[in-house]
Write a structure and sequence with these properties.
single chain, alpha/beta, Rossmann fold, 7-stranded mixed sheet, 11 helices, about 20% strand, globular, binds S-adenosylmethionine
Length: about 280
């Protein structure tokens, strides 16, 4: 088995669309006509979900004429969010074909398919021309990618001079590996966590200028506490992507991540960078 196969089999499920539709019905939403807001509980598959996507977007300047790249686009929630918010074009690329299919379907349902598209492929070897994109972001993807030097070089290749880049990810903190499973990996074999120092060094080696590093530990812990309180009240938590994709491990995966963030083995960060002009 290749590492790519292990990663896609961690994420892919045949019944994803049916499970999503059933969840929407439970929420009182018509699954044939969901709003982008109703879907956002499920299709922003990264720590703090829509809250984190919104905070990242708030820090960026994007023009309607811009074409953005979403690296590891998952079910496409962030891509549709950026397209709706900024009126721009977004192309997503993802290793998991089943995710690309669901992402395309949801994008058609929201009538955003004239501006948002999804390509099945590997972020390490993207089928895109050089200097094509005005900005790129990647949310909770690089934890699955071992060769980060190659990843950053490949992202630098497809960005225009002056383009921005954002990576949100969980970094390795002090001490041991986190406990597995986590939402991104069943075991340490498909989890490749980097330190903050190594990440900064690798981004700079690929030619990026670092513009901001935002450690979101407090936000992450507060979001976890609010989510647990909602569950205790008998409500659904705001972020339901892990439960949708990994129902059999969701509870323990979320608890393992929360514990790792609380005790410092995991550091949630948002890294903002720019390709020089
Ligand atoms: C935790 S999900 C995040 C999805 C999306 N970024 C979001 O925030 O909703 C991680 C995604 O990374 C994708 N992925 C992992 N390794 C990849 C690679 N080498 N190239 C492209 N996508 C990859 C997986 O298929 C999965 O969709």
């Amino acid at each position: 088995m290749t590492p790519e196969h292990d990663i896609t089999s961690h994420y892919a499920r045949d019944d994803l669309l049916e499970r999503l539709r059933a969840s929407l019905v439970e929420d009182g939403i018509d699954p044939d006509h969901p709003t982008i807001e109703a879907l956002a509980h499920y299709d922003h598959f990264h720590g703090r979900g829509l809250e984190a996507t919104t905070e990242i977007a708030d820090r960026l300047e994007v023009a309607p004429a811009d074409h953005l790249l979403d690296i590891g686009s998952g079910l496409g929630g962030p891509a549709r969010f950026f397209a709706r918010r900024f009126g721009c074009r977004v192309t997503g690329i993802d290793l998991t074909e089943a995710f690309c299919e669901v992402a395309r379907r949801l994008t058609r349902t929201l009538a955003l398919d004239d501006r948002v598209d999804f390509v099945h492929g590997n972020a390490l070897d993207m089928p895109f021309a050089a200097a094509r994109y005005d900005g790129a972001y990647s949310m909770n993807v690089s934890m699955n990618i071992k060769d980060k030097d190659r990843l950053y070089r490949e992202v630098a290749r497809v960005l225009k001079p002056g383009a921005w880049l954002v990576f949100s990810e969980l970094l390795r903190g002090a001490g041991a590996e986190p406990d597995y499973p986590t939402p991104w990996a069943r075991s340490a074999e498909t989890s490749f966590l980097s330190t903050l120092e190594d990440t900064h060094r690798a981004l700079q080696a690929a030619g990026f200028e670092l513009t901001e590093t935002r450690v979101t530990r407090e936000e992450n812990l507060a979001f976890g506490a609010r989510s647990r309180a909602a569950v205790e009240r008998g409500e659904k938590p705001p972020h339901r992507a892990v439960q949708l994709v990994h129902p059999e491990i969701a509870r323990v995966a979320a608890a393992n991540t929360a514990r790792g963030v609380a005790d410092g083995r995991l550091i949630p960060v948002e890294l903002f960078a720019r390709k020089p002009r």
